[in-house]
Write a structure and sequence with these properties.
single chain, alpha/beta, Nucleotidyltransferase, domain 5, 6-stranded mixed β-sheet, 5-stranded mixed β-sheet, about 35% helix
Length: about 250
C-alpha cells in the first residue's frame, strides 16, 4: 500500500492507495511546530499498518522532518518528498521555479494526466492557485490569490467591528445582515474572480481547455462557477500516486 501525504497550510491530508485506487483518506490540522509524536497522536490508528511506501507534497518546510520521523517510526521506511526537480511529464516554462510551490506542479500534472491537455487547474485552499497547461504539455504558470477563508480572516482582523464569518453560499446576493453581507461579498466576489480569471486565461491560451477544480473549497465554489467543468477534490493525492508510479519504472 502507498501512502500519499499533502502537507498544506491549513490541513495535512493522507491518502492510502491500493495500486491506483484511493481506498481511504484522513485529514488533520496542520500545526507548524508539531513534533513527530504530535503527528502520531493526531493520526492515531486511522492509517493501516501495511503501508510499504510513502510520497509527500509539502508547502510547510517546518513539518517535513517531523513527518518523515513519524512515518519512519510507524512504517519502517523513508518517505519520498517531491520537489520541483522531479519529472512531472510537463515542460516547465515558469521563470522562477525555485519559488514555485510543488503542489501547483503536482495538481497541474495530475490534471493533464487524468483529463488531457490543454487544461486549467483551480486549487481552492488557504490560497487559491489557478494554473495553465497548454496542448504542448507546457506548464505556463498562473495566478495566486487569497483563499476565501483567508479573505474572511483578513477582513475580520483589519476592521474593528466586522465579525469573522463561516464560508458558505448565502441565500441571496443582497445580504440583509452584516454576517450575510460579508458572506455574499466573499462568496459571490470569489465566483466573479474565478470566472473572470479563467476566462482571461483561456483567451490567452488560445485553446479550449478543460477547467478542473480541486482543494478543500472546490465543491463550495464549483457549482456556481460557469467556467468549471470538473471537480476532483483528491487531485493532488492522485498526482502523488502517479509520480510514485513513474519513479518505479
Amino acid at each position: 500500500m502507498l501512502l500519499a501525504v499533502d502537507i498544506g497550510n491549513s490541513s495535512t491530508k493522507f491518502g492510502v492507495f491500493d495500486r491506483e485506487k484511493l481506498v481511504s483518506k484522513l485529514s488533520i490540522p496542520t500545526i507548524k511546530n508539531a513534533a513527530a509524536d504530535d503527528l502520531e497522536n493526531a493520526v492515531g490508528n486511522d492509517l493501516p499498518q501495511n503501508i510499504t511506501a510513502a510520497i509527500v507534497s509539502s508547502v510547510v518546510p517546518e513539518l517535513e522532518k517531523p513527518l518523515g520521523d513519524f512515518l519512519t517510526k510507524r512504517f519502517g521506511m523513508t518517505p519520498v518528498f517531491v520537489d520541483t526537480s522531479f519529472d512531472f511529464g510537463l515542460t516547465i516554462r515558469y521563470k522562477t521555479i525555485a519559488t514555485l510551490g510543488v503542489d501547483r506542479l503536482i495538481t497541474a500534472s495530475a490534471g493533464a494526466a487524468k483529463y488531457g491537455v490543454p487544461c486549467i487547474v483551480c486549487s481552492f485552499g488557504t490560497a487559491t492557485t489557478i494554473d495553465a497547461v497548454n496542448s504542448a504539455r507546457e506548464y505556463l504558470g498562473g495566478i495566486i490569490a487569497p483563499g476565501m477563508k483567508t479573505m474572511a480572516e483578513a477582513l475580520h482582523l483589519k476592521t474593528s467591528k466586522l465579525p469573522e464569518v463561516q464560508i458558505t453560499r448565502p441565500k441571496s446576493v443582497i445580504g440583509d445582515t452584516t454576517d450575510s453581507s460579508i458572506q455574499s461579498g466573499i462568496f459571490y466576489g470569489y465566483i466573479g474572480l474565478v470566472d473572470g480569471i479563467v476566462s482571461r486565461m483561456a483567451e490567452e491560451l488560445g485553446e479550449k481547455p478543460q477547467i478542473i477544480a480541486t482543494g478543500g473549497f472546490s465543491e463550495t465554489v464549483a457549482d456556481e462557477c460557469k467556467q468549471i467543468q470538473i471537480t476532483d477534490e483528491s487531485l493532488l493525492l492522485e498526482g502523488l500516486q502517479i509520480i510514485h508510479e513513474s519513479l518505479r519504472k
